[in-house]
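Form P-L/3: holo structure prediction, ligand magnesium ion.
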Amino acid sequence: MKFDVNEISGLIKEEVRRYKTQADVAKVGTVLEVGDGITRVYGLDNAMAGEMLEFDGGVVGEVFNLDEDSVGAVIYGDYTKVREGAGVRGTGKVLSVPVGEALLGRVVNALCEPIDGKGVIQSEQTRFVEFAAPGIAERQPVKEPLATGLKSVDAMVPIGRGQRELIIGDRKTGKTAIALDTIINQKGKDVVCIYVAIGQKESTVAEVVATLEAHGAMEHTIVVMAGASESSAMQFIAPYAGTAIGEYFMYDKKGHALCVYDDLSKHAIAYRELSLLLRRPPGREAYPGDIFYLHSRLLERASKLSDERGGGSLTSLPIIETLEGQVSAYIPTNIISITDGQIYLQRSLFLAGVRPAIDVGISVSRVGGNAQPKAMKKVAPKLRLDLAAFRELQDFARLGTELDEAAQKQLDRGYRMVEILKQKQFAPMSVAQEVISILAGSAGVLDDIDVHRVNHFMDELVSWMELEAPEYLEMIEQIGDIDENLMSGLKDAVEAYKTIYRFSFGA
Ligand SMILES: Nc1ncnc2c1ncn2[C@@H]1O[C@H](COP(=O)(O)OP(=O)(O)OP(=O)(O)O)[C@@H](O)[C@H]1O
Ligand SMILES: [Mg+2]
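OUTPUT (holo model):
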């Protein structure tokens, strides 16, 4: 066979030409320095802010700072595996995480990798951790209730599917407890729950998981954990990963999801750490200026989608820890202004045994009323205002002021209402049970029952109703409303039970 030199050299030239056009050298950079979960990369000329990076060895990261001759990036996962001089590839995409039903019942890290030792998660779908919130045309007003099973919340600060309701309070005031009860109460209600634990002790989160398991709530729940021992980067990305999981159920499954961020104070601290490490200038209270934008972008992703978009919803329950009740500090005020209301938990109430320790004076739900079942609206129309007035009156009474008869009556009613609204943990109530409890208090049926007996009376009343008059409960549950007839029937039933109670317990 005869070789044609020209042909061969032509072929080689062509190969070389093609090779040049295929290789994208600009997208490969080198790690200049690395530490504390952040890195400086040289050579990624075309990098975009927020672009996902892949380091040699498979660790992923994200572009944060675009400097003149280098790129500042955060590393998600084990940054000790990233060495100086290692190669970095820009992917041209935003970071995405696996999502889907396969995650149900699992505990995952901020990249949605399993950390519960229950094996790999077989999920085919992925979603971007950063995703634009739906626009106004794609939304509709909140209209279905997201029952928490807590009398005080459902009656006074009702939450609707698609709402963002902040849970705020000092340390150890029962913030997590409200979120957990809400998750437990979603059992059998077609709401997938995502609990995002940010910067918490691993042992605390293990307790949360055990609690959810014990109450059969892990089946509809996914726990995303970036514990205190994890890097700031992982703590920073965790709420976005959790939201991406929720969005899968809202957009792709046209269903309902609830996302709890416990808590965003620690998230803000993680972001502050990252920013300072990346030498971004500190702003107010040393938080970077864009923390407000960051949190609003996160919470705006909660939504009730329009019917054209499938009608799914994503409800957000962000949690914020305050210091000494300082709701006017920088991060708390930011989040209060972004959300649709807040449940403020007060330490003094908590210590006095009023649990959940909701301060009715400054707790509010701005949109949830729309979603509140009619029955609840009818029995608790002014409950929040009445209780707030009661608290003021109570302060007066403490000063030893002489009260007139009407005020004394209001005070007596208030004491009983406070007792009725107390609720043990992990004992969520159905709407019907809540309605009957509130009705008994607001209709004044309990005025002649000893204050210390009220709680016991209510427990007994509810059990008695379930046994002797279940049709009332069923009617409220099914119709979601009560008419005059039902209302007076209920009042009579409660009155009737009072006699039985006196007889049985001698009160
Ligand atoms: N309704 C309740 N009845 C009785 N105990 C409660 C109630 N709510 C919370 N607790 C208890 O109070 C303690 C603190 O509750 P929780 O952990 O929910 O508070 P927190 O505000 O989330 O605390 P942290 O600041 O540590 O996150 C827990 O031991 C919890 O069991
Ligand atoms: Mg907590």
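COMMENT: Residues 98-372 form a domain with the Rossmann fold fold (CATH 3.40.50.300).
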